[in-house]
Design goal:
The chain has 3 helices and 9 strands; from the N terminus they run αββββααβββββ. The protein is mainly β. The strands form 2 sheets. The chain has a 5-stranded mixed β-barrel. It has a 3-stranded antiparallel sheet with strand order 1-2-3, with no helix packed on it. The chain has helices at residues 2-20, 107-111, 128-131, and strands spanning 77-81, 84-87, 91-94, 103-104, 137-145, 152-159, 177-187, 195-210, 213-228.
């Protein structure tokens, strides 16, 4: 009898397990892959403003090569009268280049040196109408300043544009600035002031280049302060 009831209990347990166990789930079929093709864009993307890779076939012009003007200074001088010279048919200067009668020159003449100077290609020869002034006495007007705040100074920077030597105004380039050494110190009162005056001295034309950068071109030695505005 004991074995009978054991078999009955076992069968009952098996039946109860079958009844309570969850039915096997039917796997959800995966969706069929779509046969619809993605439409190609109908518009052409806009071309870039500047084609750096040259993919459009547009040739980007290279930087023009600076060619030195090898003419002699005497080839570009035309004397108009006893005190007036015309250089290269463009620039007129008055005076005789002496201490007592200096050349009165313009900033336009000095800045024209940029046409033949490019330190990145080692082209450092100023044009002949600028070389002609090397070592002569000149007179020129401009804005002057110092790099440091001092009450007086012998070393000044004369520029075409207004600049206070720090942060106000337009910083100069080697073509529109002259490094001046004064004969006597000049007073420099005040701060962030625009100072304008006329100076005389001996002009030195000498390119100062380092690392492919032109740092200076003009110096005015033994300079004197003539007048202020």
């Amino acid at each position: 009898m004991r074995w009978f009831w054991l078999v009955v209990a076992l069968l009952a347990a098996i039946g109860l397990w079958i009844v309570l166990s969850p039915a096997p789930s039917t796997p959800t079929p995966l969706p069929e892959p779509s046969t619809t093709s993605i439409a190609e864009p109908t518009t052409t993307p806009p071309a870039p403003d500047l084609d750096l890779l040259g993919e459009s076939g547009v040739v980007i012009p290279a930087k023009p090569i600076v060619v030195a003007d090898t003419r002699s200074p005497n080839d570009i001088v035309k004397r108009l009268d006893d005190r007036t010279l015309e250089l290269d048919g463009r620039f007129r200067i008055t005076g005789n280049g002496r201490v007592d009668d200096p050349y009165r020159i313009s900033w336009e003449l000095l800045t024209s040196a940029s046409s033949t100077i490019d330190p990145t290609t080692h082209a450092l020869t100023p044009p002949p109408w600028v070389r002609l002034l090397d070592g002569t006495s000149i007179e020129i007007s401009g804005y002057y300043s110092t790099a440091l705040r001092v009450s007086s100074a012998r070393n000044l920077l004369l520029t075409l544009n207004r600049w206070d030597g720090c942060c106000i105004g337009l910083p100069p380039t080697p073509f529109d600035a002259i490094d001046m050494t004064m004969r006597e110190p000049i007073p420099m009162p005040g701060l962030h002031l625009f100072r304008f005056g006329t100076f005389r001295g001996r002009l030195v034309v000498e390119p100062f280049e380092t690392g492919g950068f032109l740092l200076g071109l003009y110096r005015l030695e033994d300079a004197t302060f003539e007048s202020a505005r």
